[in-house]
Amino acid sequence: MALKPVADRVIVKYFETEDKTASGIVLPDSSKEKTQQAEVIAVGGGKVVDGKEVPVQVKPGDRVIYGKYTGTEIKYEGEKYLVINADDIIAIVKD
Amino acid sequence: MALKPVADRVIVKYFETEDKTASGIVLPDSSKEKTQQAEVIAVGGGKVVDGKEVPVQVKPGDRVIYGKYTGTEIKYEGEKYLVINADDIIAIVKD
Amino acid sequence: MALKPVADRVIVKYFETEDKTASGIVLPDSSKEKTQQAEVIAVGGGKVVDGKEVPVQVKPGDRVIYGKYTGTEIKYEGEKYLVINADDIIAIVKD
Amino acid sequence: MALKPVADRVIVKYFETEDKTASGIVLPDSSKEKTQQAEVIAVGGGKVVDGKEVPVQVKPGDRVIYGKYTGTEIKYEGEKYLVINADDIIAIVKD
Amino acid sequence: MALKPVADRVIVKYFETEDKTASGIVLPDSSKEKTQQAEVIAVGGGKVVDGKEVPVQVKPGDRVIYGKYTGTEIKYEGEKYLVINADDIIAIVKD
Amino acid sequence: MALKPVADRVIVKYFETEDKTASGIVLPDSSKEKTQQAEVIAVGGGKVVDGKEVPVQVKPGDRVIYGKYTGTEIKYEGEKYLVINADDIIAIVKD
Amino acid sequence: MALKPVADRVIVKYFETEDKTASGIVLPDSSKEKTQQAEVIAVGGGKVVDGKEVPVQVKPGDRVIYGKYTGTEIKYEGEKYLVINADDIIAIVKD
Lengths: 95, 95, 95, 95, 95, 95, 95
Hints:
The structure is a homoheptamer of 95-residue chains.
Chain A: E1 3-5, E2 9-14, E3 25-26, E4 37-43, E5 47-49, E6 52-54, E7 63-66, E8 72-76, E9 79-85, E10 89-93
Antiparallel strand pairs in A: 2-4, 2-9, 4-7, 5-6, 7-10, 8-9
């Protein structure tokens, strides 16, 4: 992808229309408006904390759950993406 | 479990319908709407503080009491879980 | 006790109905609704500050005065307790 | 005194009814409701900052001026006291 | 350029009237009022964090996406620019 | 003076009724209600930052300009003083 | 100048009535009420961060752009000045 996130930001592609994902996670009714699961597309180089760069804990291809109502939507070559902070990712879906 | 929490997050399975748990804890009336006791299902790798990773102080299988009105609800394979921050756990129930 | 507080949390048993305690402390009228004196039942392992664990400054059996309108009430084997942060304890009653 | 303040807390005995104290300080009209001068009765062991304990800069017997509308009132053996943070003391009255 | 940003500030020239940029990024409808893509014109020397200067992660000529409703508009020799903080840049567009 | 400020506090004597001071500073109209210039009477020992005591940058006798609407007024032997934080001093008037 | 700013404060002389300055910067209409360009008159010794004094990055004579609606106005020998924090300077105008 031609977009490189800065610092600890993460670009994700989220699943907007599915109620139940392939891996079996169903988000509860109250969160139906905007699905919270997504695939990581690109990650930044990490956040500098106390003079050390702390790398982002996810990598492209990871499936993640993130807090909804977070991040900035962008469109790239006809596709919608979301740019979120790494801290807004709450869990990784392991297969 | 196929969900791996990030950082200091903890996935718990809470007890929604019991008034009195096996270990004898009864939550007071004012907190009846949402039970505060839960079992730890999965924990993240810890939070980075001052350049050191501080591990989460609970482990899968622990029974914990946590502040209600906290965390994010998720559904996984038909079961409801709650993802909370380790800091929101106030006590561990020892048997 | 089977409850182990996490971090710098402290479980106390407070005195709800007495106006004057054995040690002679009377709380002023404006704080009559909820007595501020209590006995420490269990303490957590301490808070991590700048990479070092700072132990809680009170121990089980201590009588303490704490800021009212703080903490989380729990019931355990028919008794009510309060879980507070160690920082909310303002003084220890020495005999 | 049988009360030992925790951390950087200070127990003071304030002068409620005097308009002019022995040492000659008169508080301006706008602060008449609650006198800001007091005598230090007991001090805590200090606050931990960056891993070091910073001792409280006043000692029992000191006369101090403190910001009004601060602290927690307690009654002990029929006397009223105020528990304040050491940071709320703005000046010491030297004789 | 004769303007030198201070600290971690970045001067950018943004694209106000295009809906679709050359590199193919289209911002979603809700952000049409002010385009979020821009070219970096000048960067400051960096922010001092914990006694070390952390350099800005973008350089003049970079195309960046930044959070809208941020920064200060200035006019220089008839052209409008925006001065933003480096932290408000969320991604770099790689060609 | 018999008052010793604590930490980084500074006791100043301000000029309430003059529009133009001896050194030629006139405060603009919008700040006429309370003159911002004062003479330093006493200073505290300094603030502890990162384990080191940072001394106050002014000394008794200095004429200073400080932000209005700050500090605590006290009366001492018939005179009004103001206790401010050293950080609220914005400039020293050099003769 | 007889005024010495404290810490990281900067005294500037701003241009109130010009729409277009000599160096060619025109502030956009929305900022016409108070011009954002100024000349640095005097600078403080710097801010103490993590025990080290960080010097101010501008010097007397520099022309700077600063965020409007910031700082404190003072009058000195018939001239108006503005005292701002060094952090409120966003760019230096190089000739």
